[in-house]
Amino acid sequence: MGVVVVLLLLLYSRSLIPCFRKLGRLWVVLHLLLLVLLASSSPSFFSAAQSIPDGPAFPPTVAPTNLSIGELPDALYAEILRATAQITNEVQQNFSYCITDGEKERNEVFGFQQNSTYLVNCYNFLAGVLGDRLCMYSEIKFYFENLAQAATPPPNANCNSTSWSLSCEAGWAASVASLSVNYDSLIIPSRLLYPKKCCAGFFCPRGLSCMMPCPLGASCPVATLNSRTGICDPYDYQVTPGNQCGGADIWSAVSESVNTFCPAGMYCPTPVENLNCSSGHFCRLGSTIQEKCSHLTSCSKVGLQKQNLTSIGGLILGGLATILFILVTCSDWLMDIKKRRKSKARQIAQQQARERVSGLERWRKAKEMAKLQATNISRTLSKTFSHRRTPRSQSEELQLSTDFMGSDAIAEIREDGSRDQSFNDPNVSAGDFAQNTYKDLYSPVAMPPIDIDVEGKSGEVSTLEGQKGKRPPPLVKPLRKTESQIFSYAYGEIEKERVFGVSRMSPSRINTLDTEAYGGQVMGKLRPPIELNFDNLSLFLKGSGKKILSNVTGMLKPGRIMAVMGPSGAGKTTFLNALAGKATQSRTTGTVLINGKPGSIQSYKQIIGFVPQDDIVHGNLTVEENLWFSANYRLPVNMPQCDRVLVVERIIAALGLGPIRDSLVGTVEKRGISGGQRKRVNVGLEMVMEPSLLILDEPTSGLDSTSSRLVLQALRREADMGVNVGVVLHQPSYGLFKMFDDVMFLAKGGFTAYLGPISEVEDYFRGIGLVVPDRINPPDHFMDALEGIVTPSNYPKFDTKNLPVLWMLKKGYTIPPDLEAVAIALQQQSNPMDESKDHMNESTSGSTRKKEKGFHQEVLHDVHVFFRLWYFFIKTSLHKLEDKSGRNPPGFLAQYFIILKRVVKQRLRDIRVQLQDYIILLLAGACVGILSNMNDSNLGSSGYYYTLIALALLIMIASLRTFSQEKLQFWRESASGINRVAYFLAKDTVDLFNVLVKPVIYLSMFFYFSNPRSSFLENFEITVAFVYCVTGIAYIFAILLQPAPAQLWSVFLPILATIIVASRRTGFLLRLTYLSYARYANEAFVIANARRYIGVWVITRCSVLGQLQYKLSDFLRCLLILVLYGMGARIIALLCLFLSNRNRQK
């Protein structure tokens, strides 16, 4: 028997078979004889053959017995690990963009143990020859290089058109033909012997003849033939007639091999186990474990594919709605708590100050009455001895009668009883008259001490003693800390000013006052006087060269109010803009001296107040908040809080704003205070900064007579304190007209018709023939004459063009060349008011007339003007002027916190608008979450395109309000010296709240309706970076564009950026995607999802990322790029804030 076995083995030896084949029929007969002998000598042969599975017999060298082992041999397990490592390395080499850590991926894909049941069963099934059927490196490489052609693989050495055995069919494998094979060889080994079905837990690709382990998350049972369809279930492949179904045949992307994945609603701990998800759990496609449902969801059914998170979204929605409702309901109440407390403290302090000052006034009058009675007794006694009255007693009586007759009634009475006409002399100021003639009238009155608790101690604050030779006490009291102390001090000063009056100070007196550090600082240090002298001041438009102001000469003096009047188009506003340095679109000629020295008025802008014609105030702030904001960023930084309160309260009282101090100013959409009150707030914004030069453009337009008088009385007080005030005025009443010190009448063409004291204007015009009729307002009559509406009855040939020349001739000013002919004609005429015999027309005709330009010349001229304007714009933008104001305003950080506080208040007032934004985001998140197709086949990449469009569009439109709604206010504040970087950063800081909150609101709906595989935290991180990016882009649109174009761009850009990313990209479009912020946001979303697809999903992940050209390791890079986009957009927006509309910021 042993001999027969040896012979049989020799016959089966590959080295001897060719020799026996040469014997032809003899070899066949001998082969059959040996088989018969073997059968007769060993009855167990057939029984052993019956235990071998379907297919050709095993090699006779392998004992065909059923094995029963607990775990794989170490050598075989090492071979399997080698094969899995080669598979992982091959995938990493071909798809490096989707695998970051090969060892970690191998454990996630092939993390089975040596004692895994299905490995042992396969070993037993193959009778210990499992290692010979595993794919070598060359076969693994061949499979993954041709993965896209898995259904129709290219030919190889084993499976081709001439050699296609059973082992080449799907689900079948064979052993190697050679006993010594190099596993790492790049040549596919011969594998045609003994084909067998693929083991459960392995897959055998079609056309490859070897086995590879199925990854975790796959389901790889042995296939069964469906007799009705002829398909091998569950893999849906067919076999040739007469053959049997094998095992699994493919592992590829889910779209190509979905039947190899563990079914949804089930989980597969190993590739051969399919277990139903138990109650309270859910299992996605390709799951290895069952995931526990959230406590807020109901997962009572068995075999759930995903949990229903709608209830969580509803709970979050309800919570957010509750919070927003509380904010909307209580925001005003929370903001009013401090306001009510301050209002109560203010009322108490005001009442105490009024009672205290009224008591002082009664005490002073009682004292004066006692003096008067004593004087009367002295007079009665003196009459016994003498009937002559001394001059001293007369002046004393005159002074003491002031309280009963009033200073206005006795001001014109001399000591001898006659009227003093010098009181109405415009050359004598009221302050000089009061100081020189009646020194005691405005001298400080001795008062009893006022006890105010300072720093917890009761002490004497101040006692005004107007004794000669003594230094006056400091105007600024010691520092007050508590709110009640500050209000007590402020209202005490206001009440004393109201009762005892404020003496008018001349500029010389202002300069001689004490100028110690602020604590004893007074007017001379706080408001340095500004005197403006202008000579032959003319102004031309830079583009057209049109002359709109002509040869204006004069002076604006501190302590006086000058009214600028004239017909429409005469250049009134232009004149004051030129003096204030705001005429940036024009070229100025002539000389302007500041305090007798040449220089730029912009160097003094910290102490210059400019009130525009339009009422530019913050509508969502109260009257007091508007004034306080202007005071905080424009008053000196070292000014004590008690004096700041005094300044603000004084302006509120002077302008009659006390009853509406806590009222919102209002906007177009939301009604607030009246138009007249808004105008007074507009004026108060500049008065509250304690200016030295105050220029107002039509402050009384639209006001009734009472409101106009309040404004002018406040201006009168400012002038009495040494402020230089210039006002553009339109047809005031005679009473208001007389409240000004000087007046300037401008004729058409920007020529000066009169500039001088109010008291001399009627005499001047009367001297040239313009007599004011009875019952006619003089300023109205002069305005009508300048307009040419009124013609004097005794001068029928009255010509308004002569008025400027007459003024120049009277003052001896240089006559400009274009008016020399008119001046000569007027000097030759007997009546200067007659028409100038067309000399005006002659001077502009004939040889002096300019030739008309041709088309090309006009184009060249326009181009030249354009570049000149841009050169001037860049030059002035980069040039920084020296600050000569002497005022130290708050620095960057102080202004940042001042503006931040204001913006927070504004946002709280606009909480309803914010609520609307949040509701829209909630609805958008729910709708987009339902519409998004989070398909596992594309890792949910297509489900984020709607998010990129919807979220960017809503965020950008809402972010436009940050800057577009306050452009006018910003231009005014920038012109007054606000720090633009602090302004921008404060606005952006407040918007960071929305950058963090809006993603939560949106994701609270989107995440729970779309249910992606990525975590909520990952989605939140991406959405925050995305919102930060698009918010910065919206800033650029808001600053550069008007609201309507900005909104259009905010709709167009998100759609365009997303379409470029979503479309099929080749060539230029592919390069363009790298400039789109939407690419990096979508890439981050997809990568966050892709990292959750492990195990059997690796090839699907690599396939999708390869198509989209994304890298799994670029998650942080995408977030960084989005943040850098946002920062870059903010830098560009800040530059736009500096450079755009630069002329309006001066």
Automatic annotation (TrEMBL):
Record carries keyword Nucleotide-binding: yes
Organism: Sphagnum jensenii
Primary localisation category: membrane
UniProt-recorded name of the protein: ABC transporter domain-containing protein
Location of the ABC transporter domain: 532-773
PROSITE patterns: ABC_TRANSPORTER_1, ABC_TRANSPORTER_2
A Pfam family the protein falls into: ABC_tran
Keywords (A to Z) from UniProt: ATP-binding, Membrane, Nucleotide-binding, Transmembrane, Transmembrane helix, Transport
Region (Disordered): 458-477, 832-852
